[in-house]
Design brief:
- The protein has 605 residues and is mainly alpha-helical.
- The chain has four domains: 6-57; 62-215 and 370-395, no CATH class; 280-341, no CATH class; 401-604, Orthogonal Bundle (MetI-like fold).
- It is built from 27 helices and four strands.
- Helix 17 (403-431) crosses helix 21 (483-494).
- The chain is elongated.
- The two termini are 17 Å apart.
């Protein structure tokens, strides 16, 4: 029934008032909804874009534009490591937001080179590559999520079996990390004799091609020249080499010692780099030229069998053999017998066979390869980026702990106790004219005058003395009765028709029967409010739940989220808060009519 007559609604003043009222309500709805949407938007972002809070980013830019999507892909693939991105793209990148799609990607010749480079990388040995999409800034890692699921399947979700096989002490699969791959170091080589490395290598072989990042030698050579030789002075290099480079990224590593007639400094720099910095596993050695020097080197050191020794097949992984080989390369190996078999030089050799000229200046167009992959897989990438934080939180809290089960049990017990204890107390105060009823009610309401933190320590000490810590009793008992609920229920019960109870007494009904058949059916709206209050209080309980249940096996959802917050970045926390907000939102959406009746009816009474 309308509170304003139809004639009254035609008045300009009334229409203006109604319009102003709706404007205020809409503004209130927007100010409530906008922070929630901002939280959801941030939950779909990552380190590269989560600080972008402009209004047009409520829908993140990467969901609308492929250019920001490429930036996120580069951040993700190279683990937000600017050195790795700069090395892969032959550029100097100062911040992740500077990673943009290459401007020459549509050039037919560049596309041909990109196809050639992408196909060639598939033929490289596995130790020329490292796994991409690793962890960075504590963000969810596509590689780690995939790796840990692989381990769960391999070891039957039994962390003890993994620890026994690897001789480790991991607490759970969520703490397992891959072996550290330092592929740009001179002496690095995978230690396949270790079970963990062997398992990792098998997993790595099964990864999709775009998960593997090729380690090039050109960036290592440029870094050596800039830091160890010319102190970031390109003019000094040009002068020493009689060259005219305009940028450090134009410098490439020749496959062989520069020919006679080349600047002596360039030959010396190449030799020094090959002997001291170049990854040994990429070193090509002419056996006929190097073998006599190798045997003489071993004989000088007094090694047994020096006269019949052969060159190592690959790089020795450890021990005396590795030390001898590293020292031999550093000091004695004939430099003319050495080749820098880096991925770039091996690819350039393939291009030369195809008739390409001036191949030494050609650099791998990895940026174009990545850009074309983003264009071809834009939908899948957007879906992955938009849901990864949520999937990480879901896996952390929902699948590998008891937080959800504990929270559900706690909420059910809290609701059950709230709709039993509080109504019975209020019914007794309402039905029986006790001379001290209002004193009891005042005493109950007085408990609301003190913050919950005041009673926390006494409650904790009492529960400790009773031996109830780390149990559901500790969570439920301190909030078993609620002063506001008793007050609200008593007022509602007082408003119910007395005639109904008198008729019940005449018919011989007991108080329990009248409470069950008269009071409860007429009070369902207010019961729903009490149940909702109990649900929100128990679901959102954090500080007291953490104090009385310090065992992680008894942690509720909010305590788990607090623990997550101590290590996770902001955008992951936003994803966790979004998931945590859904239950209360769903409860209100499905029960809003009953809840509104419970709020409105007492005011009319």
């Amino acid at each position: 029934m309308s509170h304003i007559a139809r004639i009254g609604r035609n008045s300009l003043r009334v229409r203006t008032g109604i319009g102003a009222l709706y404007a205020v309500l809409i503004l209130g709805a927007v100010t409530t909804l906008y922070p929630f949407l901002l939280m959801v938007s941030t939950a779909t972002k990552s380190q590269v874009d989560f600080n972008d809070y402009s209004p047009d980013t409520l829908i993140p830019r990467y969901l609308r534009d492929e250019r920001p999507l490429f930036t996120k892909y580069a951040e993700d693939r190279y683990a937000n490591n600017l050195d790795d991105v700069s090395a892969a793209y032959n550029a100097t990148i100062d911040k992740p937001q500077s990673v943009l799609p290459p401007g020459n990607a549509d050039d037919p010749q560049v596309r041909e080179l990109a196809d050639s480079w992408a196909a060639f990388q598939k033929t490289l040995p596995l130790d020329y590559k490292k796994a991409g999409f690793g962890e960075h800034d504590s963000a969810p890692s596509a590689l780690l999520l995939r790796y840990r699921e692989h381990l769960r399947a391999k070891f039957g979700d039994d962390i003890a079996a993994l620890n026994k096989a690897w001789t480790e002490e991991n607490v759970s699969f969520d703490t397992v990390v891959p072996p550290f791959e330092r592929t740009s170091l001179r002496e690095w080589t995978p230690e396949l004799e270790k079970p963990k490395v062997a398992d990792w290598t098998a997993f790595k072989k099964a990864l999709p091609d775009h998960y593997l990042v090729t380690t090039g030698a050109d960036p290592i050579y440029r870094s050596f020249l800039r830091q160890d030789v010319y102190e970031d002075d390109l003019d000094a290099l040009n002068k020493a080499w009689s060259a005219s480079y305009k940028d450090w990224n134009e410098v490439t590593l020749p496959a062989r010692l520069p020919a006679d007639g080349t600047a002596a400094a360039r030959r010396a720099d190449w030799e020094r780099f090959l002997r001291t910095k170049f990854p040994l596993r990429m070193l090509g050695v002419d056996e006929a030229a190097a073998l006599p020097a190798w045997r003489a080197f071993l004989a000088k050191r007094g090694r047994a069998g020096a006269a019949t020794a052969t060159l190592p097949e690959g790089v020795p992984t450890s021990g005396q053999a590795k030390t001898d080989w590293m020292d031999f390369v550093s000091t004695t190996l004939p430099i003319a017998s050495v080749a820098a078999n880096s991925p770039e030089n091996l690819w350039r050799a393939e291009l030369a066979k195809q008739g390409k000229v001036d191949v030494e200046a050609i650099q791998p167009p990895q940026a174009v390869v990545d850009w074309r992959y983003v264009q071809a897989n834009a939908g899948a990438l957007r879906s992955d980026f938009a849901t990864r934080n949520f999937r990480a939180v879901f896996g952390y809290v929902f699948l590998h702990g008891r937080a959800v089960a504990n929270t559900v049990i706690f909420c059910l017990l809290a609701i059950l106790s709230a709709v039993i204890v509080n109504p019975l107390c209020a019914y007794a105060l309402s039905r029986y004219p006790l001379p001290y009823a209002y004193k009891v009610l005042l005493f109950v309401l007085a408990t609301m005058a003190f913050p919950a933190e005041v009673a926390m320590i006494p409650n904790f000490l009492l529960l400790r003395d009773l031996g109830l810590l780390n149990t559901f009793w500790a969570l439920v008992l301190p909030g078993l009765a609620n002063g506001f609920s008793v007050f609200l229920l008593k007022g509602f019960f007082d408003s119910l028709p007395k005639e109904l109870y008198e008729a019940g007494i005449i018919d011989g009904a007991t108080e329990i029967s009248m409470f069950r058949r008269i009071t409860i059916p007429l009070s369902m709206p207010i019961f729903s409010v009490i149940a909702l209050n109990a649900f929100t209080a128990s679901y959102g309980a954090f500080l007291f739940a953490m104090v009385v249940c310090q065992d992680p096996k008894m942690w509720t959802l909010m305590v788990w989220l607090y623990d997550l917050q101590s290590a996770a970045p902001q955008y992951v926390i936003m994803a966790a808060l979004t998931l945590a907000a859904l239950p209360t939102l769903i409860v209100f959406m499905f029960a809003q009519k009953v809840i509104m009746r419970g709020i409105i009816l007492p005011s009319f009474k």
